[in-house]
Structures are given as structure tokens and as C-alpha cells.
Design brief:
By secondary structure, this protein is mainly alpha-helical. Helix content is about 75%, strand content about 0%.
Amino acid sequence: MARSVPGARPLPAIPPTVWTLGFVSLFMDLSSELVHSLLPVFLVSTLGASVLTVGVIEGIAEAATPVVKVFSGTLSDFFRRRKELILLGYGMAALTKPLFPLATTAEAVFIARFLDRIGKGIRGAPRDALVADVAPPAIRGACFGLRQSMDTVGAFLGPSLAILLMFWLANDIKQVLWLAVIPAFITVLLIVFGIREKEGMSARHRFRSPIRLDALKHFSGNYWRVVAIGAIFTLARFSEAFLILRAQQVGFAITWVPLVMVVMSLAYSFSAYPAGILSDRMNRQHLLAVGLLLLILADLVLACAASSLIVLLGVALWGLHMGFTQGILAAMIADVTPPELKGTAFGLFNLASGLFMLLASAIAGGVWDRHGAAMTFYAGAAFSLAAFVMLISLRSRRQND
């Protein structure tokens, strides 16, 4: 439904394509988070991997995503077609889901996780660019926030289902992982029959080659400021796998470990859409600052946690910080890039963020193995504080330009 402001012209309704992409994200995240909520425990407890290994696997897998996004985003700009790349990416992720229950070594899990993230990389930038294509500028933040909220609804349902299935199947992780295949293939059907691209997309801005370095000159200083903010932001936010391991460390039974992702996803889901609406009415960087403060608080709570309830409080704060940052960063990228280069813009943005995610997760795993869990989260709080200072500094510099 369209939103309205008293005394102002009613705002347009959120386009059907955004809703469909939201449901696509919901079902894929249901599948992925069902797997990921159990994967760190599966690696450490069943396969005997170290926490550093978990960090490296997560870091490399997540870094692969943005590298691919650079090319998929640019290709979607060149061909002016988003749907085919979105279908390829989600289809590839669906095909990797059976590899997780078949894995018998950490190396096999790494291959499955890596290929899954390649699929995410293929679909991510074209999907965000398609949202930017069809979203009216007046409700752009709300459109990105809605898709992000529906994504996190799936991220809530996935680990919730994992808990129920672990009870039902007597903690047989591999059987639970097999059931993640079903929602993954539902996403493919939704894309094939439910996604419609914006009509009349002009091809007059095509480059002679789909990958050209001279495209960079079309991006403004404001774009590169957002990229810098997102990269430093990611350095402060390592993989959620460490939240799961922290919960297990303070005494969570294996059946209840997925509750961590349930709580995080609930907080994320309930905050992303309202934050997106707020970002259409106020300065987006103010909301990012709130998100960073929430991340600092989450890290400090998790560092000091000595009980399950305190861990869940820290996880909820972590989820709130995600809601106040991820969709807003995407809207900021859409605000400062030309229409014909949005796929490229999202690809470059995610490349920078992914490389910093690799660094963050590797550092977190190394610190955990050498100095313990508490020091890992204290380090995260320190990086978050540095990102907050950078955000304020960039805002001040922009005002002085």
C-alpha cells in the first residue's frame, strides 16, 4: 500500500517486483540460514575444525561473493538484463544445498560454502540494481528496507525450522541439512514465473565492452565516500558464525544453537523496514551512526556474556545494528550513482565490503584461538569505534566541501 504524509501528496506503492524479490530472498534465506545456523557447530564438533578454520572458510566464502558481484553487476548494466543473472545466481545456490549434508571433511564444506557464495555474488548486484530500477525515488529506502526485512524473515524461519527439525530428527544434523534443499528450489520457481523487469530500459548507455575501467570516472566522490564507509563498516562486523560459537561456548545445547540466528533475524527483520522508511525522511548517515553504536554495544555485551540470556541480548543488538545499516547503505549507493551504472556500482561496493569481511573473519578466528572469545568481541568493538569516528569525519568533510 502507498504511504502518505499528512498534508503531502500520497507516496507511490511499493512495486510488485520488489515484493517478489522479497519473497525470493525470504525462501533462499530460509534455506541458507537453516544450513548456516548449524554449520559452525557441524565444522567444530563433528568435523573437528578449529575456530580459525571456521573464520577462514567464512571469510574466503564471503569475499568470493563481492568479487563476482563486480562482474555480474557490470554485465547486468551492459546487457540491460537483470533477471537472467538473478536466476543464475539463485539457481546455483540451490544446486549447492545438497553438498552440505554430503560433506565429510572441512574441505568439502569449504567447497560447498564457496560455490554457494559464488551464486550469491552472481545474483546480488543485479537484484539490488533491479530494485533501484523499479523503485520510485520517493520510497527508495522503503523498497530496499522491505526487501531486506523479508530476507531476514527467511533468516528467522530457517534457524527456527532447524530447531524443530533437530528435535524431530534426534539431533541428526545431516538429515536436517537435506531438508534445506526444498525452499532453495522454490526460489527458482518464483524467479522464473514472478519477476518482471522494468519495461523500456534504454540500451543507449552500453559500453563497447561489458568490463571497462573507464566506467569508474562516472562515479562521484560521494559514491566513493559511501564505499569507504561500507568497507570500514564491514571490518567491524565479522561473520555471524562467531555468534553461534559464542552461544555454544556459554552452554547452549546443540539443538538450541540455531536460536542465536532466530533472535538476530527477528531484531534485523523488525528494524530494517522501519529504518528504511526513516532513511527516506532524515539523513541516512545519522541512522548509520546509530547502527554502529548498536554494534559497539553488541560486541561489549557478547564479550562479557556469561549466560545464555546475555548472549541472546548481545545477538539481538547485533541484529538491530544490521537493520539500521544494510538496507540504508544500499539506498545510499542507489542515491549517488547514474541509472545505467547501478549494477556496476553495487558490484564495486560489495567487492570492497567483501574483502574487508575476509580480513575481519580471519582476524576474529585468529584472535579467538590465541586469546579467547571475549578478546575477539572487544576487538570488534574497537573496529566499530574506528568506523564510527570515520563516519563522523567523512560527514564533516562533506559538509566543508
